[in-house]
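step=encode ok
step=design start
structure_in=
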């Protein structure tokens, strides 16, 4: 969960370049996950990704926090309550969200997984109602109904053996949404990248522990892992985590939140095209229709108006 406040004035080209980076990179992370889990066990794969990315990002984020104008943040390490908050969010987002969808992609095509994760904004509406008492509007109810119909269409195009993995992908989206809504009330560091790096470290550690407990260590044979799997892991650590999260934070601070939130519509489209072109994934006409309906449901529930500050949920990003 990343929050941000927009600045006044006309955004420069760097802000639009940052948003374009989010569109492209987060949209292709699903493809990289699909490539990586062909030869590497999913939970360890996701865990190593976040531990390495978090460890690389944390010192830089600490340096940025030290330059904060807020005297309460200058020169101080994150307080225990900040680590507790990051641990809660880290379990729900990197571990529960990304880790679960990584496991689901051992069977699901990358494009289908991306569309299912795109339901995060719909889950956010549900959890905002449960946790915050935020009322449903006609738009949100309509979006939820349409989105449910899209998921039903997608499931109709899948074999029975894949339905369970679709449920896992939806559970990953729900976990990400729940953590995003809950995180707004927790004592996370105000510096975006610092909170993100802490969440990555905790989430990655949890994934490695769970993966080891599930016996995944015995399935790793480093000498037999092809270069494509290592390349996929490197892409997810570098561009997929460090670069994209940094670009997302920059875009949030320079563009309207509603503008940045358009990544939720673009990412699944990029993932679908990338999966078809680069991995030869196939989608039936009913699956294409279902994907279009899900993306359309996000347009229905999208906030309108010129928002000056707020938050945008980042479901990724896978």
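sequence_out=
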């Amino acid at each position: 969960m990343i929050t941000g406040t927009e600045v006044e004035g006309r955004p420069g080209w760097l802000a639009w370049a940052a948003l374009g980076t989010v569109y492209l990179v987060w949209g292709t992370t699903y493809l990289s996950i699909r490539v990586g889990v062909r030869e590497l066990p999913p939970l360890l794969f996701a865990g190593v990704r976040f531990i390495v990315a978090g460890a690389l990002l944390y010192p830089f984020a600490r340096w940025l926090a030290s330059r904060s104008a807020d005297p309460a943040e200058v020169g101080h390490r994150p307080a225990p309550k900040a680590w507790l908050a990051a641990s809660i969010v880290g379990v729900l987002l990197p571990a529960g969200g990304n880790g679960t969808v990584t496991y689901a992609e051992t069977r699901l095509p990358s494009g289908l997984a991306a569309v299912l994760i795109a339901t995060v904004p719909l889950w956010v509406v549900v959890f905002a109602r449960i946790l915050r008492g935020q009322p449903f509007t006609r738009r949100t109810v309509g979006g939820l109904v349409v989105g449910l119909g899209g998921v039903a269409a997608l499931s109709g195009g899948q074999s029975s053996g894949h339905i369970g993995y679709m449920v896992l992908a939806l559970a990953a989206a729900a976990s990400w949404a729940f953590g995003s809504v809950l995180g707004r009330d927790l004592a996370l560091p105000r510096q975006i990248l610092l909170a993100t790096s802490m969440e990555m470290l905790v989430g990655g550690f949890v994934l490695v522990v769970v993966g080891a407990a599930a016996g995944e260590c015995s399935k790793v044979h480093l000498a037999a892992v092809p270069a494509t799997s290592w390349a996929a892991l490197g892409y997810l650590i570098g561009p997929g985590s460090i670069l994209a999260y940094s670009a997302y934070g920059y875009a949030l601070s320079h563009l309207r939140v509603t503008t940045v939130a358009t990544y939720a519509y673009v990412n699944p489209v990029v993932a679908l095209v990338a999966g078809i072109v680069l991995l030869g994934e196939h989608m039936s006409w009913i699956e294409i229709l279902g994907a279009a309906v899900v993306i359309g449901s996000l347009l229905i529930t999208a906030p309108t108006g010129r928002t000056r500050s707020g938050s945008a949920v980042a479901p990724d990003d896978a």
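step=design ok
step=annotate ok -> Residues 107 and 162 are 7 Å apart (CA to CA).
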